[in-house]
Amino acid sequence: MKKLVAYAIIIVALLTGFGIPAAAQGEDLETNLKAAFLYNFTKYIDWQLGPDDAQFVIGVVGMSEVERALEQIARTSTVNGRRIVVRHIDRLEEIGGCQLLFIARDRRAGLREILSKVNRGEIAVAEENGAAREGAGFNFVLAGEKLKFEANMRALSSSGLKVSSQLLKLAIIVKK
Predict the structure, then answer these.
(1) Domains by residue range for the chain, with CATH
(2) DSSP secondary structure of the chain
(3) Of 28, 69, 104, 125, which cross-links 62 as Cys (Cβ 3.0–4.6 Å)?
């Protein structure tokens, strides 16, 4: 029941554009919110998946509990009818081939180094101050005590993917 209530709060937050008081709810809720946001981002982006794309790959660079939460979502959800695969990435050479790339705060490589490996048709999502300005397509931020996300329009445009205006209305738009 507790899990159902948490997901209901997340859905309401995504649909209304209001942030959730993440700090007040604890780290577990923030982790689950980030994973839910990542999954919901997939619904508002035209991924241009071809018939040979049997899976939708979400890569995770660095160490984060968000990876575990994404794996839970992947067990029961799909993206455009394709099975979700969550892939942990240890080395920069492994970055290509993910439709969505989550860049954890706790990682070895620098942000610019990672972003330079993101290909057309892929979107990077980070969780650190200034990441959207540095070139991440989306970046999670705390605005007051609420979890929100920034969108870098140039990075999203460079991805070659069409992002729904409904999603962008909920974002804090940043310029490089």
Answers:
(1) 2-174 (3.40.50.2300)
(2) -HHHHHHHHHHHHHHH---EEHHHH-HHHHHHHHHHHHHHHHHTEE----TT--EEEEEEESB-HHHHHHHHHHHH-EETTEEEEEEEE-SGGG-TT-SEEEE-SB-SS-HHHHHTTPPTT-EEEE-STTHHHHT-SEEEEEETTEEEEEEEHHHHHHTT-EE-HHHHHHSEEE--
(3) 104
